Amino acid sequence: MKTKLITLCLFFGIIGYSQVDTKIITVDLSKPHKKSITVYTDSLTIALDSSKWLSAKSREMISVKLINGNAFKYNYKIDTKDISFFNDQSAAKEKTKTEAKISADSTFKLLSSFPDRDKMFIKSIIDKNQELSQSIDSLSYEVKNFYGILKQKHTLQEKDYVQRKDFLNKGKEQLQKSYELLNALEQFNDNLQYETVKNSVIETREKAEKSIDSIIEKFYSINLDVYTPPLDIQGKNIDVVEFKLRRFDKETKEEDLDFAPTPYNIWIKNGLKIDVSAGIFFASLYDSEYDKRDDPAIEGNKIIMLKNSGDYDMAFGSTINTYVRMNSWIVPTLNFGAVITQNEKLQILLGGGVILGKQERIIFSAGISMGKVDRIADGYQVGSSYNLGDSGTIPTQSQFKFGHFFGITYNLSKVKKISLDKGIEEN
Questions:
Q1: Residues 278, 420: one domain?
Q2: Are strands 61-67 and 22-28 parallel, antiparallel or unpaired?
Q3: Quick one: DSSP state of residue 264?
């Protein structure tokens, strides 16, 4: 039993760990220039204004949701990829027509149970068919006018579509009535006018079907929102996912350059990021310099003195910066690198610091330095008197020492981007 419990825990633990969330970023096409964006993650909704950064975790997939666009008037693109709001409405057409026929059959069965059903004469069917045909024409006129109004709008919202439900319900009722007339007409199939009237009613039914097709094509063929396919960024050493919204007039094919002039940037957070920076350093570890003066007490001897070269030496080099992506101007980092001092000595650096900036980044760092430097040779001491011989050279030796440093560097790695539509890494 214990083994089974452990196995189940591991199984569900692995499943839970393997699940990947999708960050959905909703862009309101009615006001794209204001960068009014809502970010959805599962059940969490966060409204963002232009002062906030869009961001996604490194383990999340990214999808963009577009709302309030008018696909009747404009074509939309994300970068170079066309975004279609249109859908396949054939299933909706067939479903609506089938429902109308079923309703008509049910209604006629109820009417057939009444004893006075024979009071419906063929002339009444003719009159009702003419009235129904006129009603269909009237609805088509309303639909056409309403569609023309929608095409003039720059954006469409859900409230703009409220009337489409009334149109579809009327169209469905009209189609149902045409089926009811056909059912009723079958009671008079021995009448001389039967074939003529039947053809006329069938024409009306076909007109009603076309009316429904037109309503669905005009008002139900586009989605009120659309999603881009999720983009997987896991394992990619990138900083930002970038996309640009573009809008084109359907008639003139011209692009509206003022629609969304600046790109949207989705900054990646969490996950390790590694880049390289270079700059100037100040190290406490450098070669000691010595001087000498005659010893007044012992002829021919020299007293060794240490030159005052200050507390730090200037060096130039670069560091590898490792940090966790954060949605901030200030990010802590660990540094590892190397510098060359003014005496052309190599030193290794290990420390930490902060990264300032997003697009252009400056790193302030500090830590320990290590390397070989020149020190006075063993057996000699500063302040003591020695016979240095004819050369007068103060003996030194190379020693491995530890010190400390601080530095200012500039990030050499440019912000790495992935285009939302292409997924191609850029520099």
A1: yes
A2: parallel
A3: E
Strand ranges (E), 51-173: 54-57, 61-67, 74-78, 81-83
DSSP string for residues in 387-416: --TTT-PPPEEEEEEEEEEEEEEEE-SPPP
pTM: 0.64
Q: How many CB atoms lie within 10 A of CB 54?
A: 19
HSE (side-chain half, CA atoms, 13 Å) at 52: 12
Are residues 283 and 331 located together in one domain of the fold?
Answer: yes
What one-letter code names the amino acid at 340? Answer: I
pLDDT in tens, 172-217: 899 888 888 888 888 777 777 888 888 998 999 999 999 988 888 8
How many other C-beta atoms are found inside a 10 Å radius of the C-beta of residue 133? 18
Which two tokens mark 271?
A: 């996950």
* Domain encompassing residue 208: 90-219
Rounded distance, CA 276 to CA 264, Å? 26
Tokens representing 343 are 């005496």
60: CATH:
2.70.50
Query: What whole-number distance in Å separates Cα of residue 78 and Cα of residue 81?
Result: 5
Region 59-78: what's the mean pLDDT? 85
pLDDT in tens, 33-48: 555 455 544 433 344 4
**Could you tell me the CA-to-CA distances from 174 to 26, 120, 143, 196, 349 in Å, in that order?**
39, 19, 14, 21, 83
Give yes or no for a contact between 97 and 206, defined as CB atoms under 8 angstroms apart: no
The answer as to whether 283 is a domain residue is yes
